[in-house]
Write a structure and sequence with these properties.
The chain is α/β, with parallel strands linked by helices and 698 residues long. 46% of the residues lie in helices and 13% in strands. Helix 9 crosses helix 10.
Length: 698
Amino acid sequence: MRSKKALAALDAALAAVPGSQERPGQRAMVEAVATALGSGEHLLVQAGTGTGKSLAYLVPALTSGKRVVVATATKALQAQLVDKDLPRLVAALTGVLGRTPTYALAKGRGNYICLQQVHGGPGAREDEPSDSLFDGQQSSLGTQVVRLREWAEQTASGDRDEVPFPVTDRAWRQVSVSARECLGSKCPDRVDCFSEQAREAAKEADVVVANHTLLALDVFTGVQVLPERDAVVLDEAHEFVDSVTDALSHELALGDVRRAVGAAGDLVSEPALARLESARDGLEGVLQLLEPGWVRALDSHSHDVLGLLASAASATCAEITREMSSGDLAGDDVELARRERARASLTAVMEAANEIGTPSVSSAVYATADGGATRLRVSPLRVGGALGSRLFGETTVVATSATLTLGGSFRHAAGQFGLTWLAGSPVGAGEGETHDAREKAAQDEALAADEEDPPPRWRHLDVGSPFDYPRQSQLWIASDLPDPGRMAVSWAREVDALLVELVQAAGGRTLGLFSSTAAAARAAAAVRAATDLPILLQGEDSPGALQHRFGSDARTCLFGTRSFWQGVDTPGSACQLVVLDRIPFGHVDDPLSKARLAAASDAGRNGFLEVTLPPAAVLLPQGAGRLIRSTGDRGVVAVLDPRLATAGYARVLLDSLPGSYRARSKEAVLASLRAIDADAPPLTPPGPPPSERRRAVG
C-alpha cells in the first residue's frame, strides 16, 4: 500500500516536469524506500548515475507520514535539494496528498549570524579589537564586518549563504559563533536567534535536509542539533563514515588551549590559574617536539603532561561552576556569559586531553601540522560498532549512493555501518547476492552477535543505471606506461606527453582528475605550453566559477584534484573526455591509514585489501562517473595508471566501474575522440554563473 502511494506520487512529480522519462531503476528504488520506511527495516541502495535517486527517496519520504532527516555529503548537495528538487516536488504532490508537505534546511550554528556578536552583547566573543579592524590591511575586513552588521538588521534568516556580497571566513567569524561557544538558554537574544528560529522550523517539517557532519554531531556528541525523527536517509552514504570518524575524534592545539586559559584568566583563583598555565606550557613543549604522523605510543612525559592538563582543566571548570551556582551572579548576564564560555572551552580541553592521554586500543593518536601549528589528535580506527548501535540501532536508515558496493558486493558497506551480514537480504525474492550462513566470515559474525539482542534486519538493492555505457562510453587504460609506484619520474614525463595528445584529439572538452595538486599543476602547465586550449586549474578560482566556465566553452579543459572527483556535473558535449591520472589510493603518509594498516596486520588480516583498496574502489567510479551525465552523452574515460590492467587487485576495481566498452589501443582512442568531437552537439547552457545565483528561502 505504501509503495503504491509512493509510486502514484512519483508519477505526479514526473508529470509536472516537462521531458521527464520513466526510469525503471527509479521506480524500483521508490518501492524499496517506501517499504523500508513502512517496515522499519534498514535499506542499502546502490543507484547509478542518472537513476534520479534524489527523487526516489524524497517522494516516499514526503508521502510516508513520518519525519525524515535527509543527510547529504556537502552543503552544495543540501542546496540542490532545497533550492531545486523539493520546491518542484512539493508543488507536484500537494494535489495528490491533499495537503502541502513541508521541508526545512538544517545547518550548523556557525552558518547563522549571531546577534550577540553583531551587537557586542554579553555573549560576544572578542577576536579582533574593534578599532583594529579598520587599520591598514584590516580595512577590508572591517568593511565586510560593517556590511554584515547592516545586513543583520535586514535579513529574515541570518544564513551566510544568503549574504548578497562576498564574505571571507575571517569576517564571518566576527559575527558568528560555534555550537560550543553559544550561550544557549542563557543568551539574552535567544528569542530572536536566527539559528534557533531555523531549528524551530525544522521541528515541524516533514523532511529536514541536513549534511553528514551535522547528523554525526547530533548522533554521537550528545548535543541535539537536529529534531527528533522517525527515519534517516543517508545520501552519498559512502562518505558518511569519514564524518562519523571526525565526530568521534578529539584534538588539542596550542591556540585552543591558550584561548581557554585566557578565558579563565580572571575568573578563578590564582593557584588554579597557575596550575592551568603550567599545564599549558607543558603541552607547548610536547607539541614542539612532535613530528607530524602516527604516534604509536605516547612517551611517559607526554602522558604525564596530558594528565596534568586534563586535571587542571577539570579543577578550573569545577571552580567556575561552583561560583555560577552560588547565586552571587544571578541576573548578571555579562558575567554569567563569560563563565559559560570559559567553562565550555575548558571542558573541550579536558575531554581531548583525557582521550588523547588514555586512548582505547581501537583508536589511534597522531599529530598533524596545520599552517605551522601542530595538533595532537585521536580518532577511532573503526566506527561500525558505534554506527550499528547509535544510528542503525535507534532509527530506520536508508543509505544510498552511486558507489555503495565493493566488487559488486554490499558486504563491505554493511561492515562499515555495523550491520550483521546474516541479518541482511536482497530486495526481491531470488535476486541479489546470497547471505550464506555456511560462509566462515558469516559464521564468525554470527557468533560475535548477542543472541539476546538480535541484530536489526536490513535489505539491499542495486538498481543499476539507465545509461547504456557500452554504447555511450569507452574505457581505455594506458597499460604501456611505466608503473607510477615504481618509476614515478618516467611515468610523469610520459603522462604529460600523452595528455597533450588526448586533449588535442578531444578538441578540449576534457576533465582531468589528478591524484595531487602538484600533479594537476604540472599537467596544466604541460598542456598550456603545447596547445592554445584554455586550461582551468583548481585553485585559480572558486570551484563553482571554474565549473561554470568549463561548461560554457567546448574548447576549455578543467584540471582538478580530489574534490572534483565527485563534485563536477557537466552533462552534454562540454565534457567528452575524463582523464584519471592514477588509481586514487590514499596518501602513503596518512597517519590514520597507517594505524589502521598496522591494526589489520596485528590481527592477521590483509591491510591492503581491508584499508587501502576499498576507498580507491569507491572513488575510482566516482571519478569515471563524471563523463556520462545524461542519455545523450558520449565520450572516453582514460586511466593513465597501467596497474588498473596489470595488478592482481585490478579486477576488484574494474568490477566497480561502469561497463564501458574497453578500448585496446591509443590509436583507436585518439580516432574515437576526434570522431566524437566532430559529431558533438551544441553545448547545453549551464545557466547563470554562481555569482548571479542568490537563493531566497521562504
